[in-house]
UniProtKB/TrEMBL annotation:
<dbReference type="GO" id="GO:0016616">
    <property type="term" value="F:oxidoreductase activity, acting on the CH-OH group of donors, NAD or NADP as acceptor"/>
</dbReference>
<dbReference type="GO" id="GO:0048038">
    <property type="term" value="F:quinone binding"/>
</dbReference>
<keyword id="KW-0560">Oxidoreductase</keyword>
<dbReference type="InterPro" id="IPR036291">
    <property type="entry name" value="NAD(P)-bd_dom_sf"/>
</dbReference>
<feature type="domain" description="Ketoreductase">
    <location>
        <begin position="6"/>
        <end position="189"/>
    </location>
</feature>
<protein>
    <submittedName>
        <fullName>SDR family oxidoreductase</fullName>
    </submittedName>
</protein>
<dbReference type="InterPro" id="IPR057326">
    <property type="entry name" value="KR_dom"/>
</dbReference>
<comment type="similarity">
    <text>Belongs to the short-chain dehydrogenases/reductases (SDR) family.</text>
</comment>
<dbReference type="GO" id="GO:0006633">
    <property type="term" value="P:fatty acid biosynthetic process"/>
</dbReference>
<dbReference type="Pfam" id="PF13561">
    <property type="entry name" value="adh_short_C2"/>
</dbReference>
<dbReference type="InterPro" id="IPR002347">
    <property type="entry name" value="SDR_fam"/>
</dbReference>
Amino acid sequence: MSLQNKVAIITGGASGIGFAIARRFVSDGAKVVIADIDDGRGEEAEKELKDIGEAVYVTCDVAEKLDVRNLVASALDAFGDVDILVNNAGIVAGADLLELDEADFDRVLAVNLKGAFLCLQAVARHLVDRVKAGGEPGTIINISSINAVLAIADQVPYSISKGGVNQLTRVSALALAPYGIRVNAIGPGSISTDMLATVLEDEQARDKVLSRTPLGRVGEPREIAAVAAFLASDGASYVTGQTIYADGGRLPLNYFAKEAD
Ligand SMILES: NC(=O)c1ccc[n+]([C@@H]2O[C@H](COP(=O)([O-])OP(=O)(O)OC[C@H]3O[C@@H](n4cnc5c(N)ncnc54)[C@H](O)[C@@H]3O)[C@@H](O)[C@H]2O)c1
């Protein structure tokens, strides 16, 4: 198994894409620490993962430095090391540009961008110390979005935060390259999770999404997990500073998707 005995922290791992990554990593042999603010789902997720391998749930708001410090300490306590971080926790705040509340702007940036930075910095400090002591480098994966480079008019802080996540990926890949620590990102397109539920339940909105999706369907969380498993593995040993878009062909598309003849 490609992640045998690796220890991975996955933020926002109680549901959606984060949980799919946690399940895939455990199946691939990793020990997983799920960090989330939803204790109910987090504990359920831990239980489910323990049926197939090793996992613990830790309450952690990624926007809070003390929570993040506690998260890394809990991972070291539970499994003795940390090899992989997946910065997946993310939220949206849809609002017209002219109406957007400052508090909503701040919260989205705090979770999606500052939270990713705090977790990355905390885990990177551990990994750099380990490399200096003669150990293995480890790797970091940020969950970005196609909205890092595209934009939705009423998703102002979200689009800004994901643009920032792409730059966080590049700048930290450069800063950590001397230690052999790789940092990459995944930019999902439209994936079937709670975050997209209101869009997918509305037939008209769903048709609009599909008209912009050349593969003609929304993605499944396990399809993002598969990319994360690759980036976390030795198979990606020469890949760093990249964002890989798993988006059903959305980014290359101008105009509308072609229907089958
Ligand atoms: N679903 C999509 O179509 C899609 C597309 C592109 C990118 N993404 C990104 O993928 C990631 C996961 O999204 P998802 O669709 O699985 O969403 P989701 O809402 O299903 O899951 C997000 C998880 O993050 C947790 N979370 C929220 N705030 C947190 C915080 N402050 N600290 C810790 N955990 C927190 C939630 O409790 C939840 O378990 C996000 O970064 C999102 O921006 C999703």
